[in-house]
Design a protein that fits this description.
Largest sheet: 3 strands, mixed
Shape: globular
Strand order of the largest sheet: 2-1-5
Order of helices and strands: EHEHEEEEE
Number of helices: 2
Number of strands: 7
Radius of gyration: 15 Å
Length: 102
């Protein structure tokens, strides 16, 4: 699992930063429960990490200031069945089983 989050971008509004922190905590829990490795990447402008985010279809989110940020997740799994846990707003977890293929 790779979480792309523009944590170093200073112009992001506080409400979005707060949401991103909640997402990061949730994804960290998911990774721990599902025993997947989690990598958190800050795709700063004009870097290899920004290119990786774009190649993996993580889109830039534009802001009214003209700046942009990234907040997205990719999950790579070996070929076969994979089970991933998600948490509902009620706090209850549910699982999704899907087949990864080449």
């Amino acid at each position: 699992m790779t979480l792309y989050w523009s944590a170093s971008e200073d112009s992001i509004p506080a409400s979005i930063k707060s949401h991103a922190r909640r997402v990061e905590r949730l994804v960290t829990q998911m990774a721990k429960i599902s025993k997947l490795k989690l990598v958190i990447v800050d795709p700063e402008p004009d870097t290899e990490n920004e290119l990786k985010a774009l190649v993996r279809q993580i889109h830039r989110v534009p802001m009214s200031s003209g700046d942009h940020f990234f907040l997205g997740l990719t999950v790579e799994a070996p070929i076969g069945w994979t089970y991933c846990l998600f948490r509902r707003p009620s706090g209850k977890f549910f699982g999704v089983r899907y087949r990864a293929s080449a």
